[in-house]
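User: Reviewer 2 asked us to show a designed sequence for the structure in our supplementary figure. I'm pasting the structure tokens here. Could you produce the per-position amino acids so we can include them in the response letter?
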């Protein structure tokens, strides 16, 4: 099954984090660095177009198309930024523009990871190069104050992994894997199954809260891999940008149980 999900993070990043990247480019290097980034986007779009033409599966084509959509959105954002900068030198991008850039950067990284999982590789060199730059942007933004601190959360905690958060992500993905596996098994042995019967038999499934009506119906008509689809949904739930995060969570938990 092609997971049709919302690639946006589940919670909006703090305004200061979303403002950091484009604002810093303009403040430090002006319009020239924006042009460099635009060239990277064009090169990445060329690789994505070639990749789509040779994609082998519907799932791979779906994710590559999502990559193209994000690249197009980011190109249009930079076009607007350059026009604004030429009209009013020294002006900075609006909060909405910065937020849109941040969301599309995260969605691009998610979609590229999905395409790589589906095909086993990334076509060309420009897509990975751009993803590395955007990931660095996100890491830089993550060093800014945690938005939870404004709600009275402690500013510091003991060094080391946050095992409570790690366990929560792993448990959530495991629950989705189990639910998707049960649905897949039910469909394979019941020819006349429909969505209403599934929801009546499994009324407490977390999936019904996460998926739209169309996505729920697609569970009956499209092939899917429970583990891969659960990972995609868990990433969207927790606002993760890398498919490796929960994999590393599991490694940390296994390592912890050895001591």
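Assistant: Here is a per-position design you can include in the supplement:
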């Amino acid at each position: 099954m092609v997971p049709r999900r919302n690639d946006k993070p589940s919670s909006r990043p703090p305004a200061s984090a979303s403002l950091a990247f484009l604002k810093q480019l303009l403040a430090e290097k002006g319009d020239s660095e924006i042009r460099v980034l635009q060239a990277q986007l064009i090169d990445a779009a060329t690789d994505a177009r070639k990749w789509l033409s040779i994609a082998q599966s519907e799932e791979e084509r779906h994710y590559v198309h999502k990559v193209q959509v994000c690249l197009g959105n980011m190109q249009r954002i930079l076009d607007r930024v350059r026009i604004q900068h030429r009209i009013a030198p020294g002006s900075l991008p609006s909060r909405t523009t910065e937020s849109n850039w941040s969301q599309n950067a995260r969605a691009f990284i998610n979609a590229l990871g999905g395409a790589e999982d589906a095909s086993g590789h990334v076509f060309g060199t420009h897509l990975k190069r751009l993803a590395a730059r955007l990931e660095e942007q996100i890491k830089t933004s993550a060093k800014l104050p945690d938005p939870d601190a404004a709600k009275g959360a402690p500013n510091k905690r003991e060094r080391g992994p946050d095992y409570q958060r790690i366990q929560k992500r792993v448990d959530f993905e495991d629950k989705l894997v189990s639910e998707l596996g049960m649905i897949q098994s039910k469909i394979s042995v019941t020819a006349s199954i429909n969505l209403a019967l599934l929801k009546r038999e499994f009324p407490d499934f977390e999936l019904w809260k996460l998926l739209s009506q169309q996505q729920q119906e697609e569970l009956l008509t499209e092939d899917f891999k429970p583990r891969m689809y659960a990972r995609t949904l868990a990433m969207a739930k927790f606002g993760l940008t890398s498919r490796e995060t929960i994999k590393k969570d599991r490694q940390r938990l296994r390592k912890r149980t050895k001591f």
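For the response letter, you might also mention the following. The chain is about 70% helix and 0% strand. Confidence is low (pLDDT under 50) at residues 1-19, 144-154.
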